[in-house]
Design brief:
About 70% of the residues lie in helices and about 0% in strands. The protein is mainly alpha-helical. The termini are far apart.
Length: about 300
């Protein structure tokens, strides 16, 4: 008798024997998935691990020293003064206002650098990012020479409108925006270069103006980049010192932000300076940690 009749000598199961993908009653069943392999744990080379740990210690130890040497027992007394909360309130308000100025001026500037073939674009980008490497004190001097009462623009503002910017709260906002805006421009420009311009072209073919396409199409696409740049700009503005003290001075209740209050306290009361530093550190960490998962995380 042939193998086809008896089923002998073949690897196919008989009708009463369930196959590998069939259940006992003959119904098709799910195939068994092969076990997933765990990714192999790669050993970190010592030549990379050692400098990495040194870099981590270099960044963390100063903050740990601040926490260890903090006057925890008298911290409440150090922070109950009116000057402390005035400086903190001014820091939060001025940093938020500087971020708003950076958004209004920096987003269009980033679009200009990313989407147009502007002559001298490389030079313009270099000038925009110059405050990142320029010493803040030099930035404050430059602001005084331009916006001071005898400056190039400031003298005209004073004579024509009676507007004086140096040594005012507005001057604090201007100084902080000057040093913080490059962070926003770099972040938004990178987001614009990563976004597909064909969406904007499609909106233009449907009759949308360039402004409408930017508002309805481009901005939603680059919203994470704009938010990340705004967070970085806000954090930079909150910690600004050199340009602020040079252009706006250090007047309590009017131009004295938290970094300036820390500097002033270091000369007379180091324990108060440590307490103020803890407040500034706590605010900065809380904002960055709270917003990172929402705006700065990568998919």
């Amino acid at each position: 008798m042939s193998d086809r009749t008896t089923g002998a000598g073949t690897n196919h199961p008989g009708p009463d024997h369930p196959g590998p993908d069939r259940t006992a009653d003959g119904a098709a069943g799910p195939a068994t998935a092969p076990p997933r392999r765990r990714p192999r744990a790669h050993r970190v080379p010592v030549t990379l691990l050692l400098p990495a740990l040194l870099g981590l210690a270099f960044l963390i130890l100063p903050l740990a020293g601040l926490l260890v040497r903090a006057p925890w027992s008298g911290l409440s007394e150090q922070l109950t003064g009116t000057a402390v909360w005035d400086a903190l309130r001014l820091s939060l308000i001025s940093a938020t206002a500087a971020t708003a100025v950076s958004l209004v001026l920096g987003v269009p500037l980033a679009w200009l650098l990313a989407r147009t073939e502007l002559p001298g674009r490389r030079l313009i980008r270099a000038l925009v990012t110059l405050p990142l490497v320029l010493p803040p004190v030099v930035g404050g001097v430059a602001l005084l020479l331009v916006l001071g009462r005898r400056g190039i623009v400031g003298s005209w503002l004073d004579s024509a409108f009676g507007i004086t910017l140096p040594f005012t709260t507005t001057g604090v906002v201007i100084a902080e925006a000057f040093v913080a805006m490059p962070f926003l421009v770099i972040s938004v420009e990178g987001a614009l270069r990563a976004a597909d311009p064909r969406y904007e072209e499609a909106a233009a073919t449907l009759g949308a103006s360039r402004l409408t396409a930017f508002r309805r199409v481009t901005l939603p696409l680059i919203a994470p980049g704009v938010a990340a740049g705004a967070v970085l700009a806000w954090a930079r503005a909150l910690g600004e010192f050199g340009a602020t003290i040079t252009f706006a001075g250090n007047f309590p209740g009017r131009t004295q932000t938290m970094p300036l209050a820390v500097y002033l306290a270091m000369e007379s009361d180091p324990q108060a300076a440590i307490a103020l530093s803890l407040v500034l550190l706590a605010v900065s960490v809380a904002v960055l940690v709270g917003l990172r998962d929402r705006w700065l995380s990568t998919p």
